[in-house]
Amino acid sequence: RGLVGSEMCKETEHRTTKKVTKTTPASFNGDGCAQTSAVCTACGYTKVTSAAKIAKVSAPKLAKTVYTYNGKVQKPSVTVKDSKGKALKNGTDYTVSYPKGMKNVGKYTVKVTLKGNYSGSKSMTYNINPKGTSVSKVKAAKKGFKVTWKKQATQTTGYQVQYSTSSKFSSKTSKTATAKKDKTTAKTVSGLRSKTKYYVRVRTYKTSGKKKKYSSWSSAKSVTTKVAKVNFKSVSAERLGFTVKWSKAPSVSGYRVQYSTSSKFNKKVTKALKVTNGNATSATITGLKGGKKYYV
Q1: What pLDDT sits at residue 156?
Q2: Backbone angles phi, psi at 285, to 5 degrees
Q3: N or C: which end of the chain has fewer CB within 10 A?
């Protein structure tokens, strides 16, 4: 009859033993364990003498995830900790793989690979965005404006102009226009409301693959658009009054008809009629004195 280990070693009582440590690595998904056992070299009898949990690894972190292009290599450091907050050692517990370049505008991937008492890998990304620009001036125009900015040709594809009636550039009041060449330093925006205050800012962009990387926005400048020009057509006399006609001006909410017995429109003898319909092209004024000459 064959003897089991315990029966084979009754006389020696497992005096000849060796320590064996078995490690189940911890990962990003779960804890691990380091288990030490005493093993009889004569019969193979095994007894666990200690077991220690290895805390799972928390997601690694980059020191910085957004950089601005400066012509130099920009490489963020990596921190790796376990779930209890203990810092793991680079080279002993993990290695870090960086991509090539890390200088031009684009998206870069950093990979952390666990080792030793840890197993698994995780990748993180960071961006290098183009350098921004600044608004030089904004000049008002009829129903629009012209904005000029500082050229930023290095690692830049073009520029984006944002304008809004809100100083906070809320999404409901903001629109954008694009200048697609890096050497462009001005953009004219038209078709806006007349006599309205707009806030204007500019940023650069660089096309990277099929996507665009944007710089931060410049400081904003404000401008008030000019009143749209109205083409006067005719004025015809009516009984104790007159009818004035004009061509419709685009993007306006109304008109103001001013009339006076003074060719210089002296305040004391000058009055005005407010027309609140932006689509109106004529107005009739009555109740004037007969036989009087009026300037309109």
Answers
A1: 96
A2: -115, 130
A3: N
Nearest to 173 by CA among 235, 110, 220: 220
- Structure token digits, residue 198: 């707009």
Provide the pairing of β-strand 121-129 with 135-141. unpaired
CB contact set of 88 (below 8 Å; sequence gap of 6+): 57, 80, 81, 82, 94, 118
The answer to whether the pTM exceeds 0.90 is no
Distance CA 126, CA 98 (A): 11
Reading the block at residue 133, the tokens are 């620009």
- In 3D space, the residue among 216, 114, 122 whose CA is nearest the CA of residue 162 turns out to be 216
pLDDT, residue 209, reads 80
| Angle value at C-alpha 91, between 87 and 92, nearest 5 degrees | 65
Question: Is 179 within 8 Å of 107 (Cβ atoms)?
Answer: no
Beta strands in 7-105 (DSSP E): 17-24, 32-40, 46-54, 61-62, 66-68, 78-79, 94-97
φ, ψ of residue 127 to 5 degrees: the values are -120, 145
Separation between Cα atoms, residue 177 and residue 272, nearest integer Å: 38
Per-residue pLDDT tens digits for 81-98: 999 999 999 999 999 999
Cα separation, 95 vs 113, whole angstroms: 5
Q: Which residue type is seen at 1? A: R
Q: What's the pLDDT tens digit per position in 121-172?
A: 999 999 999 999 999 999 998 889 999 999 998 999 999 999 999 999 999 9
Q: Give the H or E element holding residue 174.
A: strand 174-179
Considering only CA atoms, give the Rg of the chain: 39
For residue 33 the two structure tokens come to: 């364990």
